[in-house]
Amino acid sequence: MRIQEALGLDREIRIFGTGGLYPTTANWNANNVATLTGGGAQWDDPENCDPILDIQERIEASAQVITGIYMNPMVGHRFLAADRVRSHMRQMLGDNAPNANVVGAASIQSNVDFVIPGLPPFHIVAGKVLNETTSALDYILGDSVIGVSFPAGIPRDGQSTMTAVTWRERGLSGNGFTTREFEVETRGLQGGTMMVSGHAEDEQMVASNCGFLLSDVLLAA
Fold first, then answer.
1. How far is CA 141 from CA 117, 137, 185, in A?
2. Which of 45, 81, 123, 159 has its CA 20 to 30 A from that of 112?
3. What pLDDT, in 10s, does the model give residues 47-104?
4. Are 162 and 206 in contact, with CB atoms under 8 Å apart?
5. How far apart are alpha carbons 20 and 215 in whole angstroms?
6. How far apart are CA 195 and CA 156, in angstroms?
């Protein structure tokens, strides 16, 4: 269990971490990438920023419908605090409290993920990793917002595709990682058993124009 969790965390770093699959600008079509700069554009300024428009423009640039938007908790908090986001929610929902389907649908994590009418579901990437330079825990996904496109089912007709895909080797376990054990005779009187685990998968961008990368959304990340 411990090894499996470590491998899962390592995968999250490869997908969402610095230099990972999604936050790397070079992995995307240039038209599907935008970087926010100062002057009230970044989401730290709740009165002047416009996160709804920022995301809508990226959605419009995508060659295919966006099925999910990913951000870390800090970005999510700034997003929900923005005046224009609250105005959008009031326009769509009125002044009544949102129902359970908005604050957490059954298909998503109700304690952190959320839905806003007119936009794809929002998913919070809350994982952290130790920063060995500062000894602090940093969010794996930095101040970037990732939009992805994953049509339902497995594309077979040549008419649809997805943002990225994971190619997994079947191996003995068939679940994306492989383990093996062998005896280590030099470990004391009774010897010992060494377990080695590693990834048996390869993540690739399939359609760099399906989805989006919105970078530097916070001034103070």
1. 25, 12, 42
2. 45
3. 999 999 999 999 999 999 999 999 999 999 999 999 999 998 888 777 666 665 555 5
4. yes
5. 14
6. 38
Q: What is the pTM of this model?
A: 0.83
Q: Which domains does the chain have, with CATH numbers?
A: 2-160+207-215 (3.30.1930.10), 164-205 (no CATH)
Contact criterion met (CB below 8 Å) for 112 and 73: yes
In three-state secondary structure terms, 141 is coil
pLDDT of residue 1: 76
Given this model, what pLDDT does residue 193 score?
84
pLDDT at 201: 80
Q: Find where tokens 């500062």 sit.
A: 134
pLDDT of 11 reads: 86
Could you give the C-alpha distances from 41 to 14, 38, 49, 78, in angstroms and in order? Answer: 29, 6, 5, 12
- CA-derived radius of gyration, the chain: 21
Task: Take residue 131 and report the two structure tokens written for it.
Answer: 């920063």
| Amino acid symbol at 53 | L
In whole angstroms, what is the distance from residue 217 CA to residue 73 CA?
13
- Cα separation, 207 vs 205, whole angstroms: 6
Signed CA dihedral, 81, 82, 86, 92: sign only? negative
Q: CA-CA distance, 71 to 116, in Å (whole number)?
A: 14
Residues in the chain predicted with pLDDT less than 50, given as ranges, are 105-108
Kindly give the interhelix angle for 83-93 and 73-81, rounded to the nearest 10 degrees.
70
**How many whole angstroms from its chain centre is CA 49?**
22
pLDDT at 175: 65
Residue 20 pairs in a beta bridge with none
